[in-house]
Specification:
heterodimer; A: about 230 residues; alpha+beta; BirA Bifunctional Protein, domain 2; six-stranded antiparallel β-sheet; B: about 130 residues; OB fold (Dihydrolipoamide Acetyltransferase, E2P); three-stranded antiparallel β-sheet
Chain lengths: ~230, ~130
């Protein structure tokens, strides 16, 4: 979380960033504002050995395990407003998944969005989220950080274990939808190609710059603190 | 097309200040354009009454669909009331942004600071 926010804080005016990563241990991420302590405080701290983080972005809980996480950072309004940006990025992800053979599509609106306490993110897609064969396949959320927009999300590659009762990915996984496993790097390459075609500008691969590393390090204590994780 | 009433002040961050009967006290919320861009509002975090803010300080956060955004104080002042009705029904921001969807009552420290804000015509030009 600290790195995603550091990328947003350090973004230069004409830049955009796509970051693709995975988690070293199964981790539950909570939405910025969702109430979570009553539901997960004791259970999760036992089953996941305290591996719980709270995102800077909205939405509800996501269990990260055997999955790919992406983060896109862009100047605020470079791709339109929050909803327009959500659609642009998710259309690119649909293209990436379709290139792998996953029958992905954008979900249509189904009335009002679920409340923040309505259960796991993958239980139900909202408008313009990505589904395949009726199952949500990518869970995404956004935050506006200063003049920058961060959108990150989770794509399950393999079916995950039910580490916490009632908390599964909820949706499908790439392996289940294709009937075979696909390597992380293959999925990452497909996303990279689709994003480069969908988002304007010239893209090049890079590593965290020194200033981004410093900002991320300075944010780490905040994102690791129980006061932040269990703020609600 | 978004509703942009005359007689209010607007910011480039899509917030408005609406005059009240009390001198130098304004209702602050987000514009109809902003609520349309954000989508269904599901959560608001507002400050405490009595808190003082400088211009462009973050006074709260708003979450709509899955997007979290900070809320900025348009001009320096003191919070004299918050709209606690929004705790239970934040979607009022969508249905009545300039009426029951106000977020804070702000006592402006320097009335001359309002001169830096946009009128309805300038705001219309910004969002069109």
């Amino acid at each position: 979380m600290a790195v995603d926010v550091a990328l947003a804080r350090c973004l230069e005016p004409a830049e955009g960033v796509l970051r693709i990563y995975s988690w070293s241990h199964p981790t539950l991420s909570l939405g910025r504002n969702q109430p979570a302590w009553k539901r997960y405080g004791e259970v999760v701290s036992g089953r996941l050995e305290g591996r719980v983080v709270r995102r800077p972005t909205g939405g509800r809980e996501v269990l990260h395990d055997r999955e790919l996480t992406y983060a896109v950072v862009a100047r605020d309004r470079a791709l339109g407003g929050p909803r327009a940006t959500f659609e642009v990025i998710n259309r690119a992800l649909v293209v990436a998944l379709q290139a792998l053979g996953v029958p992905a599509e954008l979900a249509r609106s189904e009335g009002r969005v679920p409340a923040l306490g309505a259960g796991a993110c993958f239980n139900r897609p909202v408008e313009n989220e990505i589904q395949a064969r009726g199952q949500k396949i990518v869970g995404s959320a956004q935050a506006r950080i200063g003049r920058t927009l961060l959108q990150h999300g989770s794509l399950p590659l393999l079916p995950g274990p039910e580490l916490v009762p009632g908390l599964r990915y909820g949706g499908g996984s790439v392996a289940e939808l294709l009937g075979q496993q696909v390597r992380f790097t293959v999925v990452a390459d497909s996303i990279e190609t689709a994003m480069a075609e969908a988002l304007p500008g010239e893209w090049r691969r890079g590593r965290l710059r020194p200033r981004e590393q410093r900002v991320a390090a300075s944010l780490l204590a905040h994102y690791e603190s129980p006061a932040w994780t269990w703020r609600r | 097309m978004s509703e942009i009433p005359a007689g209010l002040f607007y910011t480039e961050e899509h917030e408005y200040l609406k005059p009240t009967d009390d001198q130098d006290v304004f209702l602050v919320g987000i514009t109809d354009y902003a609520q349309g861009e954000l989508g269904d509002v599901v959560f608001l975090e507002l400050p405490e009454v009595g808190e003082e803010f400088e211009k462009q300080d973050v006074f709260g956060t708003i979450e709509a669909v899955k997007a979290v955004s900070d809320l900025y104080v348009p001009v320096a002042g003191e919070i004299v009331a918050i709209n606690s009705v929004l705790d239970d029904d934040p979607a009022i921001v969508n249905t009545d942004p300039y009426g029951e969807g106000w977020m804070i009552r702000l006592k402006v420290r320097e009335p001359s600071s309002l001169e830096d804000l946009l009128d309805h015509e300038a705001y219309r030009a910004l969002v069109d």
